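User: Reviewer 2 asked us to show a designed sequence for the structure in our supplementary figure. I'm pasting the structure tokens here. Could you produce the per-position amino acids so we can include them in the response letter?
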């Protein structure tokens, strides 16, 4: 079987992260990110579930995830996955959108899976330039061309991509975002939201696409990743984000991010230098 290789590079000029997975068999459970993801399938076949829709994604497909889009995927052909991707924060996307549209508004991608040769012709060379550490301005130029294409063909106001949420669910989310570092009980969330346990579970899954506990896991993993990028040791990051021990933290981090916490710490230390 092909050897697994996972590579991550942060580009200071573009202010975004590029990563490449080769020979991956790992399934990714239902989760979401606080940032945009633009990815490209280099090889393999996977079943992707996103916002209650299912797709078969294959070589050449481009994946577009807005912040908050819940998604999961598993290998479908008995082979392995080769994948390139970018993680782009909302702040950086705001700057890019303003540059190409003249409006400082977050775009929302109307489709999660596309097959677009022109987009691919921008996406793959851009990724290769970032992975090689290119300092030529052609890298920024390609990013702007890619952004313009995506917004023009698949863009809509970001708010259109965010499902309308009941006030009670927003209260539950806010409670978890404020108390993620401590031990949280379902009863506490229900009391805050003013809902019974069964009602909360049904309404939350319908609104967010994940259960309350999975939502909490995503919050903790996101906060831990930021701590690791700042140089905080994995054991300390685990404690600060509510994980019971480092082993528990490592297992969850790898499941959701596809990388070990130690890898993020080492890569981030290099990035800071």
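Assistant: Here is a per-position design you can include in the supplement:
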């Amino acid at each position: 079987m092909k050897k697994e290789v996972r590579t991550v590079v942060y580009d200071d000029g573009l202010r975004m992260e590029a990563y490449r997975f080769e020979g991956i068999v790992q399934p990714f459970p239902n989760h979401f990110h606080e940032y945009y993801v633009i990815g490209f399938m280099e090889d393999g076949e996977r079943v992707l579930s996103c916002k209650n829709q299912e797709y078969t994604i294959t070589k050449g497909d481009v994946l577009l995830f807005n912040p908050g889009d819940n998604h999961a995927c598993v290998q479908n052909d008995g082979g392995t996955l080769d994948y390139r991707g970018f993680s782009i924060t909302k702040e950086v996307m705001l700057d890019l959108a303003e540059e190409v549209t003249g409006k400082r508004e977050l775009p929302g991608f109307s489709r999660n899976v596309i097959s677009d040769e022109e987009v691919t012709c921008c996406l793959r060379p851009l990724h290769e330039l970032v992975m090689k550490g290119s300092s030529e301005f052609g890298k920024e130029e390609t990013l702007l061309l890619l952004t313009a294409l995506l917004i023009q063909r698949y863009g809509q106001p970001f708010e259109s991509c965010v499902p309308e949420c009941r006030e009670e669910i927003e209260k539950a989310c806010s409670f978890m975002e404020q108390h993620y570092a401590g031990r949280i009980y379902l009863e506490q969330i229900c009391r805050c939201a003013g809902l019974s346990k069964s009602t909360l579970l049904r309404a939350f899954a319908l609104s967010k696409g994940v259960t309350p506990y999975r939502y909490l896991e995503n919050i903790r993993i996101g906060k831990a990743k930021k701590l690791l990028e700042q140089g905080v040791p994995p054991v300390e990051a685990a404690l600060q984000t509510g994980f019971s021990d480092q082993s528990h933290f490592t297992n969850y981090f790898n499941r959701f991010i596809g990388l070990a916490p130690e890898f993020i710490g080492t890569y981030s230390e290099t990035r800071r230098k």
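For the response letter, you might also mention the following. The radius of gyration is 19 Å. Residues 43 and 161 are 28 Å apart (CA to CA).
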